[in-house]
Amino acid sequence: MKNKTTFAPVLFMCFILSQWSYLQPKSANQEEWNLEDLENYLRTAKIVSVEKEKIPGRTEAWKITLDDGKIVRRGHFKHVRDNRPTLIPDSYKYEIAAYELHKLVDLKRMPPIVEREIEGIKGSLQFRIENCFPLDDLKRKKIEPPDPEAFENELEEINVFENLTFCERKELDDVLIHEEDWKVYRVDFSEAFSPIPELIPGQKVTRCSKKLFQNLQKIEDDAIKAKLKLYLNDEEIKTLLIRKKIILDKIKQLIEEKGEESVLF
After folding, report:
1. What are the extents of the domains in the chain?
2. Which pTM does this prediction carry?
3. Which residue from 10, 240, 28, 6 is spatially nearest to 113, judged by alpha carbons?
4. Is the pLDDT of residue 184 over 80?
5. In this structure, what are the phi and psi dihedrals at residue 62, rounded to the nearest 5 degrees?
6. C-alpha closest to that of 220 among 185, 236, 200, 244
7. How many CB atoms lie within 10 A of CB 125?
8. Strands 62-67, 72-78: parallel, antiparallel or unpaired by DSSP?
9. Of 253, 209, 106, 102, which Cα lies nearest the Cα of 164?
10. Which residue has the higher pLDDT, 157 or 139?
11. Which residue has the higher pLDDT, 90 or 13?
12. Phi/psi of residue 250, nearest 5 degrees
C-alpha cells in the first residue's frame, strides 16, 4: 500500500512535466530543419492565439501561437502590402520572395515563411526562433563569440544575400544569434528588392562561402524568374538578376586579386 501511495504522486508529476514540455513553444532550430515539414506546419496548424500590436514597427506584425496537436510553436504574421511603386514600399510579399530566393541558393539563414490567411487577412507567417538575441546585444555588451572566425563567416554570407536582395541592414536586431549553437539568422525583408541595379552602398562584398558562390553560379535566371514572379514585378526581378551578376563578377575579381583562400570559406 505504501508503494502505491508513493508511486501515485510520481506519476502525477511525470504527467505535469510532460504537459509543461508540450506547451513550451518550440524553436525551428531546436530540431532538424526539414523545410517542407515546417512549412506544412505553418500552413495547417491550428491558430491558438493572435496578439496584435505586440511587435513594434511599421509592418504591424502580430504574434501567433500555433498547435498541430503534437507541438506548440510561435510565429510572426505580417499583413502590410505596400508594394512598389508606392512611396514607402513595405510588403509581406517581399518577405516571401526573400525566403523563396534563399531556398533557391540553399542558404538556410531564414526561418521558414509561408503565405496564410488569418482572421480573413492574407499575410506572411514566419517561425519565431526562440532563445535568440540580436546582433545589437553582441556589440553593445561586447560579447565574444566562441568561434569568432566562424561567426564572421556567417555574417559575411548574410551580407552577400542582403546585397542580392538589396535589403539594407538598418537595424542590428534584423540579425539574430542563437544562444546555444551561435547560428546566425536574418529576418525582416519586407522592404527588400529595391529596383536598383547596384549593390548596397557601404555594404561591400569582400568574402563569400564556397557553397553560396557555387549556388549563385549554378542557379539559372529563368529559375529565379519562375519562382519569384508571384511576389515581385518585372523591374524588381530584372535588377535582382543584375545584382546577382555584379556579386559574381566581384567575387571572381577578388579571387584573381587575393586568391581563393582569402575570399572563399
Report:
1. 26-263
2. 0.86
3. 28
4. yes
5. -105, 150
6. 244
7. 27
8. antiparallel
9. 102
10. 157
11. 90
12. -65, -45
